[in-house]
Amino acid sequence: MARVFLRCMCKNKLVKRTFCVQNAPKDRAVFQPERVLVLSKMSRLEFEKHKQPYLSEQELKGRLAARGSSYEGLMKRHRIHTRNLESVTEALRSHGVEVRVVQKHEYTPEKVKWADVIMSAGGDGTFLMAASHILTRDKPLIGVNTDPSRSEGFLCLPKKYCGKFSQALELLLFGKFRWRWRNRIRITLEGYQVSLIDPVDLDDLELGAHDHLGPHRDYRYQSESDDERVLNLAECPSDSEEKETTVLPIRALNEIFIGETRASRTSYYELSVDGRRWEKQKSSGLTVCTGTGSSSWSLHINQLTYQSTREILRIVNEETNSRVSVDTDVIARVADRVMHRYNNSLMFDASEPKMTYTVRDPIINGVFSVKCPRGFARRITVRSRCWDACLAVDGASSFQFNDGAMAYLEIFPEDALRTVVLD
Asked: Which of 229, 307, 384, 403 has the most neighbouring CB atoms within 10 Å?
């Protein structure tokens, strides 16, 4: 449970009083942590060295140059990140805060429990990684963008505080901020031995040219054709065997993707939205996002472009026998307004307790149909009919999700993430 401090002046002396965030008045802006855990991103240079530890510095330079990358450029970005990371830790320690810095391989539930506040130093990806292991409402997460020229940092503090974190810290300590709650998706899996499924770290996954299935492959069938695999399904658990239900140990802040591991394969599954009847679908996969994620991948999948909007208006003009030319400035302005109005309707606030789903590239023919390829929902249930599928959370962790497995996607108030907005 996060501990925070109220500072008050009494006879020119600084007095500390401790209390729990959970017991504080609702949404009261109080920030005085004792312990802060900083999750630092792994710079591209660190990643290259970690990936190829057997290379000398000179050999690494040559390898990067052969791929069209600059060792000097990577070193420059690494130093920028390191310098801005140091500005965060130094500012915190100057106020008597105990600070620990870790990277993703050291970021464990035990260390999250140790800290009063979690901070991410990197971009949005690092913020999402930090959020995934925070499972309670009382532990705040604050993101610092350590290289704004290379990362948008939409989830982080404003870019102007990069390298000047001490200014942001002063605002936090003096209560000049507001708590912002971001709802997240809880994932419950049901099926055979689902409690034994280990997540795959997608950042660590190195794909070979001959095999893109990787850790998600069911090794009982790795040397068999699809026909042989079907014949051997008799070896799988029968319906009479007991199924398991487990809640995944992470929460989705941005989005969830469900589909075949091989992008070129069609994903086959059954979908039920808010308890309505099941619908069998074939597509390029299903995405489900929160309000936070509604301005990210989901928006890019569904948004209208200016070109498409003009084409639609041209067809509308033809169908309605309108004499207004689509090449006029008036139509151009209308197209721009229509495009922005439609795209804005796809996004919603991070605090809203709902999700939006998108069926990517739905197959619609005489057998399969999709009534609503996108929409809002409170509860989504998916039954996999895939051969080698995954359920990927925030583009970082992937869980096996094959034929017969079911996923329940829901939003609960207790799963909301506590973040800050500076005044």
From this structure: 384
The two counts, helices (H) then strands (E), for the chain are: 10, 21
Q: How far apart are CA 275 and CA 381, in angstroms?
A: 8
Top-confidence residue, 215 or 270 = 270
Residues 6+ apart with CB under 8 A from 31: 4, 117, 140, 172, 173, 175, 177, 420
How far apart are the C-alpha atoms of 13 and 292, rounded to whole Å?
A: 43
12 Ramachandran zone, left/alpha/beta (phi>0; psi -120 to 50): left
38 class by beta-carbon count within 10 Å (0-12 exposed, 13-18 middle, 19+ buried): buried
Question: Given this model, what pLDDT does residue 163 score?
Answer: 87
Q: How far is CA 398 from CA 19, 230, 282, 387, in A?
A: 38, 25, 21, 15
Alpha helices in 70-199 (DSSP H): 71-94, 109-114, 124-132, 165-173
| Residue 91 pLDDT | 96
At residue 389, what are phi and psi to the nearest 5 degrees?
-105, 165
Q: b/e map of 197-224 (b: 16 or more CB within 10 Å)?
A: bebbeeeeeeeeeeebbbebeeeebeee
Residue identified by tokens 């800290």 is 115
Q: In one letter, which amino acid is 194?
A: V
* Distance, CA of 106 to CA of 375 (rounded, Å): 38
Q: What are phi and psi of 148, to 5 degrees?
A: -60, -25
Structure tokens at 188: 């419950």
Among the residue ranges 15-24, 67-76, 124-133, the one predicted with the least confidence is 15-24
The strand pairing partners of 377, in sequence order, are 355
SS3 assignment, position 97: coil
Compute CA distances 350 → 123, 127, 321, 405, whole Å: 18, 15, 43, 29
The per-residue pLDDT for range 218-246, each reduced to its tens digit, is 433 444 444 444 444 444 555 556 788 99
| pLDDT tens-digit readout, 326-340 | 667 777 888 899 999
Angle between helices 165-173 and 71-94 (to 10 degrees): 30
